[in-house]
Design goal:
By secondary structure, this protein is α+β, with helices and mostly antiparallel strands. It has 2 domains: about 1-85, Crispr-associated protein, domain 1 (Alpha-Beta Plaits), CATH 3.30.70.1200; about 95-220, Crispr-associated protein, domain 2 (Alpha-Beta Plaits, 2-Layer Sandwich). Helix content is about 30%, strand content about 40%. It is built from 5 helices and 10 strands, in the order βααββββββααββαβ. The chain has helices at about 15-25, 30-35, 120-130, 135-155, 195-205; strands at about 1-10, 50-55, 60-65, 75-85, 95-100, 105-110, 110-115, 160-175, 180-195, 220. The strands form 3 sheets. Strands 2-3-1-4 form a 4-stranded antiparallel β-sheet. Strands 8-9-5-10 form a 4-stranded antiparallel β-sheet. Strand 8 and strand 9 form a beta hairpin. Helix 3 packs across helix 4. The two termini are about 25 Å apart.
Length: about 220
Amino acid sequence: MFMTRARLRRGNSATSSLAAVLSRNLDAYGGHQLVWSLFGATPEQERDFLYRLDWRNRTPELVIVSRREPVDAHGIFELECRTYEPNLEVGDELVFSLRANATKDKIRSGKPSLRVDIVMDRVRELRQANPGADVNRVEIAKEAGRIWLSEKGKRCGFVVQPDHVVVDSYRAEPIGRNKSTLAQIDFRGRLSVTDPAAFNQALVSGIGRAKAFGCGLMLVRRG
């Protein structure tokens, strides 16, 4: 496995112009296309990487975990790449951050289950119970997100203490030509490893949905 930090290259006028355009239009779909360019994407190829897009001093930076070493065939990026081999044991305490598309399958009477964003689903429930109520989506994301993450930990080999999990943001943005909405929650906090094999798998395979659009990559460090 490899972990890579990719920054748009500055240097010549052509690359600088491209970087300026990308910086203005680097939404979830744009980030998806850029990362694919580092792995020689073909129509039949399956995705074998996770990534996250952050902004550093108004400059976009991609953090990528991949099974293959990325190659910048077009000279767009500055790449910092290293091998990524987490060596974890039961009880290890880690600091983490995670950008997740937190969803659940909602059971409906007499109908197929429906995949819903956990925040907007809770907003609808509150408004149905109390029409006209002032609903704070960020506060709902804190409550619902911590529950969601705790449930994911049971299957992914870690445990978090809800009081030690911070939800920094909740946002929904359009992606793609049909402007579908992608909801994202940014978590950070501390966790304990309970199943190293399951946790390692989660680190390389991702947590939650929408992994092709920059969600699901959990970054960890000792501390």
